[in-house]
Amino acid sequence: MQRQTQPVTVGSGSENDAREHMKRPKEQGMTPAKGESSTKLKSLIRKPSVSHEATEERLARGKAQEDLTLPRLITESASVKASSSDHPDTFSYNKFKGCLLKPPLGRDGGQTSDPTTNERREKVKEMMKFAWDNYKRYAWGKNELRPLTKNGHIGNMFGGLRGASIIDSLDTLYIMGLMEEYNDAKEWVQTSLDLNSNGEASLFEVNIRYVGGLLSAYYLTGEEFYKKKVVELGEKLLPAFNTPTGIPRGVINLGSGTSWSWGWASAGSSILAEFGTLHLEFVHLSELSRNPIYTEKVMNIRKVLNKIEKPHGLYPNFLSPVSGNWVQHHVSIGGLGDSFYEYLIKSYLMSDKSDDDAKKMYYGALEAIEANLVQKSPGGLTYMAEWRGGILDHKMGHLACFSGGMIGIGADDGEPEKRQHYLDLAAEITHTCHESYTRSATKLGPEAFRFDSGGEATATRLNDRYYILRPEVIESYMYMWRLTHDPKYREWGWEAVQALEQHCRVESGFSGIRDVYTLTASHDNMQQSFFLSETLKYLYLLFSDDDLLSLEDWVFNTEAHPLPIIRRSCLEDPAPQDKTVSE
Ligand code: DMJ
Fold first, then answer.
1. Of 159, 188, 318, 578, which alpha carbon lies 20 to 30 A from 360's?
2. Which domains does the chain show, CATH number per domain?
3. Which atom of ligand 1 is nearest to the CA of 277?
4. 32 against 194, higher pLDDT
5. Whose CA is nearest to atom 10 of ligand 1?
């Protein structure tokens, strides 16, 4: 990432400090796209339930279908999948109409039979409660907590939307059984989440945090107001797609619908990881709103990407939304590229392995990445380098460490040899990312580590030494644990818990640190909302049984918000009348 032109913490294009760099169109000398008028969507109202228990019971018994004119909410576990003898050859999301799923959460809330694992899980729950209580006390309704100065941070990444930490926490609180806290969060969404903001927002960030968070809250609880809110918000994002190619711009004014590209992105380009990280949420928006427009928008992105020539089969990070051509040849599995790849394989998985296009694109991209980016260091560590027009930069960002988990869940069960190959690659990358943690004094990993100048898996540049409570390494531990049950992943997760407690926990919350290589802590005074949504959720799942948010039933969006897999049976029978309901 070029520091002089874009913020250091840019993850998938725009997070964190990026918000401070958002520029208005006239400052960029760009003509904003006129927002298309928003579509009035039919709201589908069902009686809201009042408590977690009541909702669970109602859902478990299939009583959610009180009004048969409304979409059906079906509780179906992987083990009671309806048989699918004649699923369609050509995959089409539009056929999903009329079939919503609410898979089970897991028995006993995912508690394991191992006392040590349970203690560890309780510890993570305590960390969540501590982070949440301090947010509530000092920053309620703001986007994030500033734990040192004990106040809230708003920033301008979410276009005037507030409560990012609340939206990002809903599902984590819910699965941890922190019901008092969850109910406070829920009440805030009902009474205070104001979507009528007029600010400039990152399309990507609003989508992964707000749309993703509200969708998950809806699917987990069945509370109807989440659905209304998320559909209302989804409508406000549509004008960003009003470009000559249909590739959305990165920034949108949620009030006027005008949109423009990031000031730091080359020549008015859109960012691969931003426009490529909408698919999962938009398919569910179509599902909930009964409006195919969301799915059409993201399918069109695919079409554009499929048409365009790819250098060595690789997808560069910058694309012009006007011409549909690549603007630069920088390729990265870390920031600016990362979650595009993640959403390809997860689109396939979320479609109950029906979306063959997504699978093809994912494997095509992964093969090109393996051929061009994957490297082995002299010390035997496998890593993903970055590619700049054919020249390798031997650097791996913390963000790129999600790829261990991604390659793991993408290891196809069709061909045993291929599967083993990808599982091995996933394990090697996760091992390298763990090394980036163990080689620091704090046992937390730097923002980026390098494999040059004699160093391996360590940050050799001063400005790469910070850690902002990011989840990616722990995310890969969680997936690798689920896939292999190798106890080392739980041990590595526990090492991270201890390091977080020792170096990031302060009197009033958790904070990032400026240098993972020194024990004299310098805190950055920010409790990122993704710490609540991702880091702590993945840790909690790591110390839970596999049936808590089973990977057979759910996919996690890139902010760790679980979305249900849409079963093939939904394609075959758009309005099933007599599905067996079972938890
Ligand atoms: C999160 O917002 C998401 O995981 C995103 O895809 C990348 N960056 C952050 C966490 O580091």
1. 318
2. 25-85+99-571 (1.50.10.10)
3. 6
4. 194
5. 470
